Amino acid sequence: MCGILGYIGNQKKTVDVLLQGLSRLEYRGYDSSGIAIIQNGKSKVFKSKGKLSKLKTKINKHSPKGSLGIGHTRWATHGDASQKNAHPHISGGTSVVHNGIIENYLDLKNELKKKGYKFYSDTDTEVIAHLIEDMSASGLDFEDAARAAFKKIEGSYAIAVISDKNPDKVIATRKFSPLILAIGDHENYLASDVPAILPFSRKVVYLEDGDVAVLERDNVRITDLDGNELKRKVQSINWDPISVEKCGYRHFMMKEIYEQPQAILDTMRGRFSEETGEIFLEGFDPAMFKDINRIVALACGTSYHASLIGKYMIEKIAKVSVEVDIASEFRYRNPIIDRKTLAIAVSQSGETADTSEALVEAKSRGAKTISITNVMMSKIARDSDRVIYTHAGPEIGVASTKAFTTQLIAFYLFAIYLGRIKKQITKKQAIEMIKDALSIPQLIQVVLKLDNQIKELAKEFFTYRNFLYLGRGINYPIAFEGALKLKEISYIHAEGYAAGEMKHGPIALIDEDMPIVLIAPGDGVSNKKILGNLQEVRARKGKVIFLTSDLSAPEIKGNVDKIIEVPDCPNLLSPIVSIVPLQLLAYHIATYKGTDVDQPRNLAKVVTVE
Ligand code: M6R
Questions:
Q1: Domains of the chain (ranges plus CATH)?
Q2: Ligand 1: distance of its center to the CA of 299 in Å?
Q3: CA 499 to CA 588: how far, in whole Å?
């Protein structure tokens, strides 16, 4: 995790660029933050425990000047969240920021200690600063010293370094952690992620593992670890800078909930023909999928829940069997994979270490691979044979919302694509399915109108300490996802279950202090059965919040405390609609509780550690 940033140039105030950029990277970690700026040939370092706002207050008293600097926002791995462990770490005139884990740091630390280097923090990062200083002491110039140090470290990292001895360069490298360069006019930037630099530049270079970038005011060079020059493509980013602003919303999460109709349209755009029922997925070739007889989906958290729904879609439409694996478990259980297996890695960030490693494992066992991700050129995108990008735009709130619903639409498009290849659906059916998908943005708009009603509902329920979410059929993963949203932003204990499981254990929990969210859109078999669950809950005095699109059943009247009425919707797409009120419910409960919605405690948006 962690976010890193670098700037060199005379066009802007370095301190402003660093703080603005870090505020857009804060979603990656917010235990502590810090910057280093070279002012009159000397590094000035400012650090603070806690949110970036604390660092800003501290810096305001000093307003450091200088034309290059680096910054960091931290999610603790080695060493607690404290000022001492905040980055940048310093040795002599070398300042370093780092995202990732240095696996051999203990060996390196011992060697450096023997040479007399003193360590002030508990971090793995500090060894990098001392290593570079040590290489400089042996006579190497800054660039060669940095490369020599980078060669010695093992693990995953994105690193940025500045040095008082050479105050005209920012040097950076990466391995398994993301890092981009952004090219400006007489100024250059580096950052962990695109949103940080979006207001400054849209010309971006995605660094590759082992690249070393040397940023000067008017020049950017990329070399390998031996100093050989490399060519990397400059790409144009089409994200709008506005997309990383709150635009009047109190929280990014709320903005992102409201962006879902547009994000779904954007994810579908250009990928279907309403006339022929064809699905167009960039770079996809039907030949790749002809022999596929089994699919494994690999993901974590919300992306895992999307994959559980993707399984329903693919099995129903394309009749290919799908297993869904929690990515962190997959590679430790000797999975059975062959050349006829397709692995689908699903990840908003495209960086999640568990998912990325699971993908590599599946590939090494011979699987064909595709990914569904929101971040262009992310590690998972680069490691898969083909990618379906969700066009959700940057998702800043730690709780995933629009990434989830766009993943669902991506799964749906892929299911139709595969269904046609496998001749499991006719052209006419494909056309109907596309029509169904096109109706979804409008249906979400209808649900968003329930916002005030759900806010009122939240007011009545925010003091409860436990919640149970139950769903059936294609909506049972929505029970997991609704519960995850609630627990991560409101810190209320919440469990999601397939409703049929209730009688096998969770029913023991039910009493008048346990609100139960019953998810029952549509009027199919699943819902008839959920009405049975409703009676069981009621008999034990549980409080029921009933989410449905069909109020006709007589069992509902008098048996539910609150109703969330969602519009009727084609069954396979109903999870995309039914999750929206549950996102709103979690959001409003969290705001009543006064928690930090966009940056909940202990979490980070991108989890790049196993
Ligand atoms: O970037 P990814 O989709 O791979 O992230 C996976 C999970 O870490 C993520 O979905 C997490 O569970 C979210 N905080 C959920 O809101």
A1: 3-241 (3.60.20.10), 246-441 (3.40.50.10490), 451-593 (3.40.50.10490)
A2: 9
A3: 25
